[in-house]
Amino acid sequence: MKMERTIDKKLIYKGKIIDLEVLDVELPDGNRSKREIVLHRGASAIIPIDQDGNIVMVRQYRKPVEKELLEIPAGTLEEGEDPLHCAKRELIEEIGYGAKSFEPLVSFYSTPGFTTEKLFLYIARELYKEEGEADFDEFIEVEKVKLEDAFSMVMDGKIEDAKSIIGILLAYQRLKG
Amino acid sequence: MKMERTIDKKLIYKGKIIDLEVLDVELPDGNRSKREIVLHRGASAIIPIDQDGNIVMVRQYRKPVEKELLEIPAGTLEEGEDPLHCAKRELIEEIGYGAKSFEPLVSFYSTPGFTTEKLFLYIARELYKEEGEADFDEFIEVEKVKLEDAFSMVMDGKIEDAKSIIGILLAYQRLKG
């Protein structure tokens, strides 16, 4: 395997959601290069399907891209947290629903060129209203979208968030394909 | 729209591929919060389909996740570069092919919770061998995978890179669906 050996590592920033490290690495041919790496604990994302065949989605303002995006519910793993536990917690926090069935779909790296972030994706079914504390800080609006309509929105470029595109395409494949 | 107004902005790091800013923002209810934002110029990614129905993929070591991943060809936009130009350039640099047909599929944010990175996805067809300079620095291995097999690999969790999952699912939908 053409791996890159770490020669030196410098912690540039230690934050709440991310840390930043800059590494000096040795390439397979012996040359040196720099790698800028954003450390992230990972996240879980959920495609919650209700009994009418809707995906329960969330609309929220995303400061990095300076606009509101329509996404599937998701959230960052807490230190040492199991991804399934995180999925269950975030589902309640973001949309106020629990689910009797959680099925793992796939896991993937959101952008492996510069960050460690790994996403764990679940389909949640048999939803029920949960009287948990909503995550009010996030100013999230819940929006139900028919699976077929969500699929069309992906094809038309109206869903712009990578994890949501993957979740909708896989759920459509699984449930309608 | 529930936007977040920037109160203060601090540049923590200015790098080659990414910069890091930490912002103080005012939330819609008047409270304050911090936003850690990784600035990225964006990237283009290509699903190159050859005349035998293979996707021409690349295998490369990704230091942030410390392993080799099988991905579709992609690369970062140069300052002010048009995404289509970038797609054409990266296709030659990474796999040594040009293409007579480039069709835009979708564009999306790779992980909008903490980075500005936007990805522009193209299907490239009518490939031809181009005698350009390969991007030798990246130690990339070219690997042809039948579209059906790539689709199965996504469903089996063997493709772990988000943009590649999206590209393969959309190409499969478009060409086989």
Structural class of chain A, by secondary structure, is alpha+beta
CATH architecture descriptor of the largest domain in chain A: Alpha-Beta Complex
User: In sequence order, what are the helices and strands of chain A, one letter per element?
Assistant: EEEEEEEHEEEHH
Number of strands of chain A: 10
- Determine the mean pLDDT of chain A: 94
- The 3D shape of chain A can be described as elongated
Rg measurement of chain A, Å = 18 Å
Helix content class of chain A: 10-25%
Relative strand content of chain A: over 45%
Unreliable runs of chain A, pLDDT <50, ≥5 residues? none
Q: Biggest interface and which pair forms it?
A: A-B, 67 and 67 residues
Kindly report the oligomeric state of this protein: homodimer
Main beta sheet of chain A: strand number and arrangement?
4 strands, mixed
How many independent structural domains of chain A?
2
Distance between the termini of chain A: 37 Å
Question: How would you characterize this protein structure?
Answer:
2 copies of one chain form a homodimer. Chain A has 177 residues and is α+β, with helices and mostly antiparallel strands. The first copy, chain A, folds into 2 domains: 5-40; 43-176, Nucleoside Triphosphate Pyrophosphohydrolase, CATH 3.90.79. Helix content of chain A is 21%, strand content 46%. The first copy, chain A, has 3 helices and 10 strands; from the N terminus they run E-E-E-E-E-E-E-H-E-E-E-H-H. Chain A has helices spanning 83-95, 147-155, 162-176; strands at 5-14, 18-26, 32-40, 43-48, 54-62, 67-71, 74-76, 97-109, 118-129, 141-146. In chain A, the strands form 3 sheets. A 4-stranded mixed beta sheet of chain A has the order 7-4-9-8, sandwiched between helices. In chain A, strands 1-2-3 form a 3-stranded antiparallel beta sheet, with no helix packed on it. Chain A has a 3-stranded antiparallel beta sheet with strand order 6-5-10. In chain A, a hairpin with a 5-residue loop joins strand 2 (18-26) and strand 3 (32-40). Chains A and B meet through strand 2, strand 3, strand 5, strand 6 and strand 8 of A and strand 2, strand 3, strand 5, strand 6 and strand 8 of B.
